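Escalated from tier 1: pyridoxal-5'-phosphate holo job.
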Amino acid sequence: MLASPAESPTLPKRRVGQIAAHASILDAIGGTPLVRLSKLFGDAGLDVYAKLEALNPGGSIKDRPAYNILSRALAAGDINSKTTVVESSSGNFAIGLAQVCGYLGLPLICVVDIKTTAQNVRIIEAYGARVDLVSKPDPVTGEYLQARLNRIKEILASVPNAFWPNQYANRNNSGSHYGSTMPEIVEVLGPELDYVVLATSTCGTLRGCADYVREQGLRTRIVAVDAAGSVIFGRPQGKRLLPGHGAGIVPTLFNNDLAQLVVHVSDLDCVLGCRRLVQQEAILAGASSGGIITAVERLANEGQIARGSRCALILADRGERYLDTVYSDSWVQAQLGVDAISV
Ligand SMILES: Cc1ncc(COP(=O)(O)O)c(C=O)c1O
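Tier 2 regenerated the structure:
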């Protein structure tokens, strides 16, 4: 039942000081809100907050490394106004780079493959970047990832003054989370934070958060959520349908001692977690966020996360980019063989 108008929550008027007047769109990156997930985790006795990275202006956590990598390269003189930025990415990092390059006036070539969604291609192009499509896998490995890397090398050799951010190996990728994501969480939730839960692909988030926790001597334990079928944590490669988390290579940024707990989640785990998150907390998030929700539920049920624990979940992106997959019953039926989704 709805509360009477007198008791119902109202839209709070933000105080001056809480609202920033940013110098540019790049200045609006970071500082994302933490939202308590009391409906999903209240019964389990957990104090859980979601860090909503979807509220970055480019719609995902990858705005942070895109900005950090390019601004540091500019400051170091590695790039200048004549540089063309070239990267292999078909998802959030490409969009983050397209936003930063668009603002800085730098040409960007995004090397994508045929698995890239039409929507992401349109977003990247709408920012003014060029999309370079690789339509065949590498003849030696049979992998699209290798084919995209081959194409990057061709472009680097032929385009003068080209710069490759190389997100899988760039310390300014993890540095963005060491310098912003993790300190923001600790500043708001306090150093007594028990767990931070994050998804892995380049391992930039994992590396940056783990470096911060170790350097500050925090008790916080890091839970890494990877895709079933991803090779990051030494498992064999397998089929994965949902983009974002998981990798077909072990990133240079990875190290074996960064996470205290590792959970592998299937595509269906992601769908179910996303559906529960939107149904109970009205947060429409991307696939890896659903994987994180399922992973935390699993760890709580198994008693690996104790009642009373305070947890921060880093939810990487928004659900709009997954309307034709995670939030489509017909896609779930056709691809995952599940008829009626009941959450
Ligand atoms: C939706 C989503 N979740 C998780 C990740 C993993 O982040 P990282 O590359 O820092 O490991 C990414 C990376 O692109 C992503 O797009």
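Residues 66 and 97 are 5 Å apart (CA to CA).
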